[in-house]
Records
---
Amino acid sequence: MSQSKDVLVFCEQRDGILQKVSLELLGEGRKLADTLGQNLVALLPGSGVENLCSTLIAHGADEVIHVDHPYLGDYMNEPYTKAMTAVLREGNYEIVLIGATAIGRDLAPRVAARVKTGLTADCTSLEIDGETRQLLMTRPAFGGNILATIICPEHRPQMASIRPGVMLAPVQDNTRKGIIRSFDANLKESDKNVIILETVRAAKKTKDITEAKILISGGRGTGKEGFAVLENVAQLLGGQVSASRAAVDEGFAPKDRQVGQTGKTVRPQLYMACGISGAIQHLAGMEESELIIAVNKNASAPIFDVADVGIVGDMHKILPKLITRLEAIANE
Amino acid sequence: MKIIVCIKQVPNTNEVRLNQETGTLMREGVPSIINPDDLAGIEAALLIKDNVGAHVSVMTMGPPQADIALREALAMGCDEAYLISDRAFAGADTWATSSTLAGAAKLLGFDLIITGRQAIDGDTAQVGPQMAEHLRIPVISYAEEINATRDNITVKRQYEDRYQRIQANYPLLITALSELNEPRYMSVGGVVNAYEKEIRTLTYEDLKAYVSQENIGLKGSPTRVKKSFTKQPKGKGELHQVSDDESVSIIIQKLKEHHIL
């Protein structure tokens, strides 16, 4: 444990496209590495994705470990686990960060179990303890009602998963220099222990809400027709529509639009909550947004506790007027 | 076919409220439920039992009062129930929890293990995949659809932007999403049966041939909770209670200030 060093970020790509969370983690990993006076290493498994290595360096990596293998094309649990474990055993890293996506949350626990170390899921803040130099991993628990700071004192690496949208991606710097290294994980046919019969990419009509700069969000009180109005506002502002769990449960919006503890964490430039009372689980998923505007009939709704601008009023009356004004501005 | 379903009894976190004055959790009167993803896991196992025939055991690790959750599972139609409960297991993080559950699975024997994707009180989604690792079997997480035959199983595995159909042979571990199915209700006959059936308690003594003392409880847990605290709410912003037209003007003004317009 005394020789452990460096911060490693697992960089996720799908179909050769780097996932945004990977860049966000490089930003956070850079900070931690600088605090520790250590290097930031990006781990990039995939098949024919070498072209992404320079992007990782431009976003803060000192070194990229590139594991290229046909078995690492489409994500599969065992080949990825084997590849990542081999890299971790070679390097004896201090810290490992991984995106809490449907891939990261499948891979990270298995890797942590195999190398016997601790893993803290869905961290919202990471910090180095000034005294012990341990990683302080803070995460919501109990449905977002409390926060817990977790440590991993005697095992290395200290592993943490972080949800997309929680950390900020650094600005790309193409002048940065770094090392690119190929790694052979010695994968075998027998590592493919399941058969992928088919992969169906969901036709993406709208951008993922975690990537949206502007979100217009509705709740139970918004109603089916209300969501059509939100769509209109979102279009005028160049944003997307999102929803509370209650609205998703009512069938007003699809599950992939859900913001909150059991949905997605978002931090857009503008989050406009219309007819959302603000259950704590919902607040947990949006309170880091830069500007929060809330419209709600109930002046004591908890959404107003986190809103920068609270409007006590009926969204069904206010939004149509807002649309008229926005249309007028657009035509100016 | 032998199926083990792992469940967790959790407080219904949707009903937990914060005491605004003290900032502490108000847990009193918050009902305990079977974790929603786990309930889907039970239903998935029972559907396999209905369709191809299976013996379904349900197990949970927790305090003695977690037997209520097991009774409910029996009432839904599970055949056997096991409560993994011992002071030696206390303080376990996901690593030690999964190695303990894996030990119990080895004791019972299985072709298929189904867990929920994650529990609503912890939300880690780690115990299922880690159990699979301790058992050295494949895992398919985020199951949205399961089609089992006696020979193999096909799972629709959900990702954010896609899904896959994955086929695997037994033994295998699957983690279930609550979207997987609509769990059945307990039947009257089932409730009566549930109280006639015995819930067997498994202690460390029962599992020691399958899991080392190093790998259970606090000692087997790489992580520690350093502190827990309630969240500081973000400072309250401005609140306006004005006419609809004035409200619209305020919104427009703010959008301009933040260069959104």
---
Amino acid sequence: MKFLFPILLIFTMTTANAVATANAAPDNSTQKKIFSSRDKVMPALVHIQPVIKNYATGEMEKQAVVGSGVIIHADGYVVTNYHVAGKAERIICTLADKEIVQATYIGGDPMTDISVIKLDLSNYKNKINIAEFGDSDSVQVGQYVMALGSPLSLSRSISFGVISTKDRYFSSNVRLPSGERTGRYNLWLQTDAAINPGNSGGPLVNLDGKIIGINSRAQTFANNIGFAIPINVVKAVVAEIIDHKKVIRSWIGLHCQPLQELEEYFGTNVNSGVLISSIDPGSPAEKSFLKAGDIILELDGQSVSARFVEEVPFFYNIIAQYKPGSEISLKVLRNDETFNFEVLTKQLGDLQGEDFESKEWGFTVKEITRQMQVDHQLDDTHGVLVIGVKNVGVADKGGLRRQDVISKVNDTEVLNFEEFIATYNALTIEKVEKIMLTINRSGAIRHVLLDITKEEGNDKDE
Amino acid sequence: MNKKILFLIAFLTISFGSFQISSAQSFDFEKLEKIVSEVSVIINMKVEYSFGAHTNEQEERYLGSVVSEDGLVLYNGFTLSGDNPISALTGMNVKTTTSEITVTFLDGTEYPAEFVGVDRFSKIGFIKIKADDHKFKALKFISEKKYKVGDWVALYMLLPEYVQPPLSADVGMISTLIETPEEFPLIVGFNTLQMTSVLFDENLNALGVLGQLSDPSQSNTDQAGMIESFGSFGMPLLGLITENRIAKMIANPPEKGKTDRGWLGITLQALTTEMAEFWNLDITGGIIINDIASNSPAAKAGLDVGDIIFEVNGQTVEVNKEEKVPIFQRKIAEMGPSAAVEFTILKRTDDKVDTTKVLATLEKTPMTATDSPEYENEELEFTVRDLVFSDYLYHNLDAESFAGVVVSELKSGGVAEIEGLRYGDIIQRISDQEVTSVGEVEVVMDELVEQKVAEIIFFVWRNQKTLFVNVKTDF
């Protein structure tokens, strides 16, 4: 008896599948639309092979990756994912006509996982094709869509499906492979058009041949649960990247939580107000005396609300779009009374700093940005963050670990990334053999002695 | 099933061991058995092991020895040592709860008993017989004995429940006298199933109990430099836990909730030989003070960050690599609270090195995560514990301004878990009332249960951020 149910279930699913397949077989007009859409976008599809630098092992390692992209401008601008081409040093692109051209990295935005590269068309004899942006707000759940790209590096592939949902929310705790938090400011289109690794950065298109999203992630161990960044988000981000190489956002350092289940407790009306759940230490919000539990009713005179989690990114985005340094006026409900608060926004700044390989010392470091300071609970942005320690290298033997913050090299204070590089270069040129690092680990200082003479390669020189 | 296999292996080892050494010793086992029978008890207890939301209850049986007239009994507390305060901070610990403890003397008299605690270093467990004013015959250990390689020792172990009589004798031989990391007469011929059995010499004097030497480099130490235990990986080195260590425990048993170990309050690091060389110091080892807890004994004594301790009470600190740091930490822990300790330190300034002596009075180790008091709310099926010193360090919280209680257990599928509370959440407010201790939580929860409120709003700290969790009740 116990086994009956699962068997029935499989049976039902198989039958349903068969029926669905029969019903979903495109009729002639749909098939025509698919062909016409394909012909509009396919010529603008790009197979991208960037070489990115990986510093996680304590050494700078070059890594060839594969992704997809689409040409969106006659000057050769291609939009793709930040996790495909972000900070890439060499980018090889294969166009739809199989011609290979080089591209350069223009800029990117880890928050929305979008980057822009530019094709070098000086030696390209043909004329490039451009795909058009559609409107992601008017997308409907159930609407037919196609995903174009290079799944598992198989270039020029199309998969077909529908929009499964158009307001999928992911918590902003998700991180890109390079470590940046992502997804705080947008929702996602979910589709059952197959999206595999390699599809990243490729277009999700409607049957009018217009781009409605940029494919960027998929659920592992699932059948066809893929996600694309809505094109209306992409349009704004791309424009900023082409102008400034990055997206400039305002930051006040507050985190919000949907009010749905807390309306009675806070005594608010349905669809009224945004609940502040947490405030970053040292942030403009804290300096303006905002508190967790405050409910923002109005922002510069406009009513705001976030009853459901899907409404939270939209609210974050309203603040982000202010010019850094703007004063925002918030009408806030606290203990049944309303107050007005003025908050001076700051620029969000880079989520992550630059990387550097201290080759002779056997570790890699990262510049500490203000967002990293908040993330890692550091007192300030001084020093450099260790992001990789080479196995059985000099630093490993000395006891250095990932996440340590180097504050001193010998007796020289390391205030920032540039100073660290300068000190490293000076000591390396002088061939200093023993170096004492002063580091901060979990709030306490420690000493790490680097004995360069112990390095295997150096033994031979003696 | 596993237990049976273990016993089989034990028997093989025992018979093999006895066979090898049977000709070399001369114990009067008839007499010894009489001595042992008078002070031995068979302990039965229920132990609940929980990991996260998973729990498993088991009946366990041990051989115990009465060591005080008022009924203190020592036994092998190893299985209860999963209660690791360091991993409790991260939620990776196995929590153990004992219940229904009884002791049965070999003549059949039975008493109820209660759990006292486990010594974290030796894993010796203690229970106390509940028998009002009854005076028990207690085992007396002899002190100040000199040991030498080749000395014979004997013990009794508990046989499985289906065997009568319950006890079986075994002999072993002292094979070497280990000096570091601690003085420990190593014994061959025994196995780990005999741990905490009382060891006797050929004159039938009780010497101590069978214990294990652990690797200090595998120790559990938290950010505050509070050492909790040495590791027990690799080949077990069995030997004699001597009277002087046991006597301290009997005089002051390691009670759950009581942290009577010495504490200096420093974050520390080994001064390696290479570092001493780099700084041109005349010493070959020591302890570098990297941080000092505010109001700690170290702070009160005037120790400074950067100081190097190279002598404790005139004895050289032989710590020249990181793996040896726990030996120093354990020494401090075992000196006990209120011990006055003289530290000889080096102070390094830009161009000179000064030597000074600093007198510090140790204090009690701050409450640990597993020792801190708990409160279980049965209606919402969650348990909280007080926030302890190590939590503040582990999460980098400000002790002056931050308060709350930590969610230490959630019933799988229970109300609190389903409604969104998480293990490790620090609850700061419950429906508008600030809570800073489990006592306060109990008062607030009692009130809310009595009022039969439909929802309770917990304001919690999780992953460096705060949030509100609405728990719908069905009172």
